[in-house]
Amino acid sequence: xxxxxxxxxxxxxxxxxxxxxxxxxxxxxxxxxxxxxxxxxxxxxxxxxxxxxxxxxxxxxxxxxxxxxxxxxxxxxxxxxxxxxxxxxxxxxxxxxxxxxxxxxxxxxxxxxxxxxxxxxxxxxxxxxxxxxxxxxxxxxxxxxxxxxxxxxxxxxxxxxxxxxxxxxxxxxxxxxxxxxxxxxxxxxxxxxxxxxxxxxxxxxxxxxxxxxxxxxxxxxxxxxxxxxxxxxxxxxxxxxxxxxxxxxxxxxxxxxxxxxxxxxxxxxxxxxxxxxxxxxxxxxxxxxx
Amino acid sequence: xxxxxxxxxxxxxxxxxxxxxxxxxxxxxxxxxxxxxxxxxxxxxxxxxxxxxxxxxxxxxxxxxxxxxxxxxxxxxxxxxxxxxxxxxxxxxxxxxxxxxxxxxxxxxxxxxxxxxxxxxxxxxxxxxxxxxxxxxxxxxxxxxxxxxxxxxxxxxxxxxxxxxxxxxxxxxxxxxxxxxxxxxxxxxxxxxxxxxxxxxxxxxxxxxxxxxxxxxxxxxxxxxxxxxxxxxxxxxxxxxxxxxxxxxxxxxxxxxxxxxxxxxxxxxxxxxxxxxxxxxxxxxxxxxxxxxxxxxxxxxxxxxxxxxxxxxxxxxxxxxxxxxxxxxxxxxxxxxxxxxxxxxxxxxxxxxxxxxxxxxxxxxxxxxxxxxxxxxxxxxxxxxxxxxxxxxxxxxxxxxxxxxxxxxxxxxxxxxxxxxxxxxxxxxxxxxxxxxxxxxxxxxxxxxxxxxxxxxxxxxxxxxxxxxxxxxxxxxxxxxxxxxxxxxxxxxxxxxxxxxxxxxxxxxxxxxxxxxxxxxxxxxxxxxxxxxxxxxxxxxxxxxxxxxxxxxxxxxxxxxxxxxxxxxxxxxxxxxxxxxxxxxxxxxxxxxxxxxxxx
Lengths: 290, 600
Fold this sequence. Notes:
heterodimer; A: mainly alpha; 11 helices; about 0% strand; elongated; disordered N terminus; B: alpha+beta; seven-stranded mixed beta sheet; 19 helices; about 25% helix
């Protein structure tokens, strides 16, 4: 039994993580490819009059299969909350979700017969493609980002990053106590005008050009260059500001990776539900005006 | 009276530590520098920020660094305070609350940090900072919003409009417009604002009665029982089409089974060839008593044309039969007419045409054959109009009066001639020289018929005479003038089962002779119709190939056959009637052919 042999090999220490993409020798990739190929072949072979669209017998057939697939695919959202092992494990389900979801591109597009317009039917199609595109983004993100994220984090946890920043802030605060108002104001920028995460754009780019810490660092360097007063204190503060800048960069890169890992779901999930609503409107309207 | 300073420090795990210290001095200094009595470790506070003094029980505060103090939301550089009620002074991130202790009269100053040391993250912020939940509205809220918008706009509104405005056709904004699956065809474009013109009842597929409400004169293709009998078991695809399609309301043998709407704002698409060929490919097998021959594709599987040919004509009626052109059938129209002679660019006919100013360089088709009002076919040949310029029936002139034989009435002709000759006529040979005609019968009769009246009349009817030139005349026995001229029956429509439109074959593009080999025809019995091979020079089957025209069945044939022209009229030019008015147009112009009828 091939299956047994595989398990045996793993037991000998070749433990290898098998992701949902490679699950069961990409069984569902094969299934999805077969379904897509058959759908395309039938599309090319049957003589639908006057031309392919959702309202021909084949169009209705593809529509039914597509709608069924969409409902099943969206059930992953419910299914994932219950983890079970084995043949019907969540991993198997996710693998099927990904590959059959990709097959939906073929089934849905053939269902349209390439006839698109400004109507509820194309809205449903557009939402479906948006959901699939965001899903593809998600797969790519899941495949590539965790490694980069792990490299960036370098054994630190999110809590540790925040702890470090808090400790640096306290040290900055304490060290700056003897400073005059002008210098103190510069340091306060780092303490009071420094958002780790920022808005969505800042999260996606990991860049905050107006960050108070950066401003404080640049201004203080300039001040130190201009006047030798308080050199020791200011030197120490500069060191702290630089350390904070490094920690901020790391944290922001981390946030960027996490944002990329999460953001597709903010499209995928609401667009899925909007798609189901549009699908209902699409189906009802088609049969309402049969 | 003294100050009691209560400094509050918050512990990490919650809870406060309060350290009250009594100061028996009249003046308290507040600032970041360590030498202040109230030292605030706060970078927003100046090293020496303010003073609080007590003079004769009255509390007075004064800002030192020039930046005003915020006292209960208002800003002061210096002011007296009534501390009977708690008074709050905000300095940097700290708050000082001053209040007089009633029994002792001491002023308590509670000092606490009210803003965090930095805006840097607190442990409880980890989720907010590292997850997108902190930057975007929740997925659930977004989803509900989208669901609501989509359902409201594209489902609830249209359905509500359908229920409440069922009868009202014209509305400015139509809620059901986003439901359309594509533009209506040009024929139905006027209905685009009124979905319910066709979609009468909700959840009921468009019914035939709705179509026939406007399309009133549609004939059935055949007896429904014969239709079903002829419908063969045509393989997997047809089975799928009927079972899967049937489950979704796609019924065969309905209007919408063949005529598909919402396919674009052009003419309605032609019905696919398979709708015809499924049955007609093997009709002889499925319907053995049919007279129709099998056909499935114009290029590859179509019999030779079988026009309705007049084989013989008597005054009791004509013998008309469908015969294949493959057998080179001959027409029996009752006429003698050599096309070759008439079309020759040289010779007598050409010279006469030129002399009469009818045509330069010989006759052409158009000199005799003129299109009918529609341009689809040609007018019936009328002797006087189409032949009479040359073949005159004038036989005598006296002064300005010209005597003419009456065409088509033998007895009248005989009577006319008899009266003329008996009255001493016959001297027109000289007077009519300017009216010479080919075979100018009456005139030559004088010479050929001798001097007897009967002889002269007979000569008119004889071969070479005015009548006998073109007509087959049965001569009566001597002594009788009871001539019998065979009736002429010219077919005005050879193919009533198919549509041929001469306008589609414009003579500017296609010469008549391309299809009709008239120049080589010596006898009237030659059938000048082109065979299928000639059509196939330009036309192929359902799909265009080699630069030839796609010609599915419906190019020439109509499913809804009528005694007249098939209903399929393809718009080729601006002068063409629009498809919607075809029926009306036919009624107006009378294009519905009446079949063969004797010409006068």
